[in-house]
Specification:
Elements lengths: L1 H23 L16 E6 L7 H9 L10 E5 L5 H9 L2 E4 L10 H13 L6 E4 L5 E2 L3 H11 L3 E8 L6 H23 L11 E4 H7 L9 H11 L4 E11 L5 H28 L6 H9 L2 H23 L3 H29 L6 H16 L1 H10 L13
Parallel strand pairs: 1-2, 1-4, 2-3, 6-8
Antiparallel strand pairs: 4-7, 5-8, 6-7
Helix pairs in contact: 1-10, 1-11, 2-3, 6-12, 6-13, 8-9, 9-14, 11-12, 12-13
């Protein structure tokens, strides 16, 4: 009985926090200074051993509706013998070979910091675009992103689609993770002028910020989420531009997704541990709604899940003490079915809202499989919390 009461209180607390977050965004304030200059842009591409996919990105840069000068494209490798170097030579783009790469500096953030410091010795840019080597851009990607720059935004991400969503179910549900961020988080935040959540690449950084940093300060396991919190803390104007579409390759093996998600979860909690205390103390001259929303984060959802679990557990314990094992198992079964149906509903909502490149047959499979995939985030979270150190693991690309 006590366990069920605690579960009910947690559910009420979660609801209160959710409503508080909804009210907080109404207090957002954002001040933009429009720009009229045609920005000079740089393209940064971390590309260690990415010779299988780099050409697709370089070709899509050539096909942009705005001119991209080869001398403004910087591909980052770790060895001159990397076949990527030869491909880049054919396209006339710069190749930056990282010096003295250690295991601790193998992360993308360190690679970006090294190339940015090298660039700043010779020239400056108005915009820095960050892409993964496996990305491919729609022809109007840069043109649409420049519109966001002209509006006054300082850090902007595009719409992340999947290159290989129809390869298998793992790839399809993996790309759905980013669609959940788009549909359930960023679209709502843009509507309320709150700071968005960055995931992966496909974004630009205002050159004035790079000049201020004199490098790339985000070097954690999840430098994208770290950027999100940094922007909120310092009142930087961010935006999610759905008209700027790019494509990203998804893992096709379950083990790859586990390694990926363990790193994301570990990096998520590490970034929040670093930034949330400072965000709680910040008050003046920033986007107040975003500050309050970041304090809340995913806590309402976590508390709601724990509360529901305790209610079900409490009910099963009461029934088992009475010797009514049949009813106890029935309660467990009903809870599992309800959870599955709720997650199916979330999946269906995302598929209806998003423009993911999935066939109708694959979408039908995803509706039934994605709830199971979402549940596997639980063991991934447990592994991430129990591991003292989580290393960045390279995922082979080839699409």
């Amino acid at each position: 009985m006590v366990i069920s009461v605690v579960g009910g209180l947690l559910l009420m607390w979660a609801l209160g926090m959710f409503l508080y977050g909804r009210c907080a965004v109404k207090k957002n304030r954002i001040s933009l200074v429009p720009r009229e200059n045609d920005p000079r842009l740089a393209v940064l591409i971390p590309a260690r051993d990415e010779s299988k996919v780099i050409e697709g990105l370089l070709l899509s840069l050539q096909q942009q509706t705005v001119d991209v000068r080869p001398e403004d494209v910087y591909v980052i490798v770790e060895s001159k013998s990397d076949p990527t170097v030869e491909i880049c030579a054919r396209y006339g783009v710069n190749v930056f070979v990282r010096p003295r790469v250690t295991a601790k500096r193998a992360r993308k953030g360190f690679a970006l910091d090294e190339v940015v410091r090298d660039i700043l010795k010779r020239r400056r840019y108005d915009l820095y675009f960050i892409f993964d080597a496996d990305n491919i851009l729609e022809a109007n990607f840069l043109a649409e992103m420049k519109k966001s720059y002209a509006a006054g935004y300082e850090i902007v991400t595009g719409y992340r689609n999947a290159k290989n969503g129809n390869a298998n179910l793992i790839a399809a549900v993996s790309c759905l993770t980013f669609s959940m961020i788009n549909t359930l988080v960023n679209r709502d935040r843009v509507k309320h002028e709150a700071n968005i959540v960055f995931s992966g690449t496909g974004y630009f950084i205002d050159g004035k910020l790079i000049d201020r940093w004199q490098g790339w300060p985000f070097r954690s396991l999840t430098e994208d989420y770290e950027i999100s919190l940094y922007a909120t803390l310092h009142g930087i104007a961010t935006y999610y531009n759905e008209a700027a579409v790019f494509y990203d390759e998804q893992p096709t093996r379950y083990a790859q997704t586990v390694a990926q998600r363990v790193r994301w979860i570990k990096g998520y909690f590490g970034a929040r541990k670093k930034y949330i205390p400072a965000i709680k103390e910040k008050r003046d001259g920033v986007n107040v709604g975003s500050l309050r929303k970041e304090q809340i984060g995913v806590r309402p959802a976590i508390l709601a899940v724990i509360g529901a679990f305790l209610i079900v557990l409490g009910g099963m314990m009461v029934l088992s003490w009475r010797g009514e094992w049949g009813w106890a198992l029935s309660v467990l079964g009903i809870a599992i079915v309800v959870l599955y149906l709720v997650l199916m509903g979330v999946t269906l909502h995302i598929l209806r809202q998003e423009k993911i490149d999935l066939s109708r047959r694959m979408k039908l499979k995803v509706i039934f499989f994605n709830p199971l995939y979402l549940v596997t985030y639980v063991p991934c979270a447990i592994e991430a919390l129990l591991k003292r150190e989580v290393e960045w693991v390279k995922i082979e690309h080839g699409v």
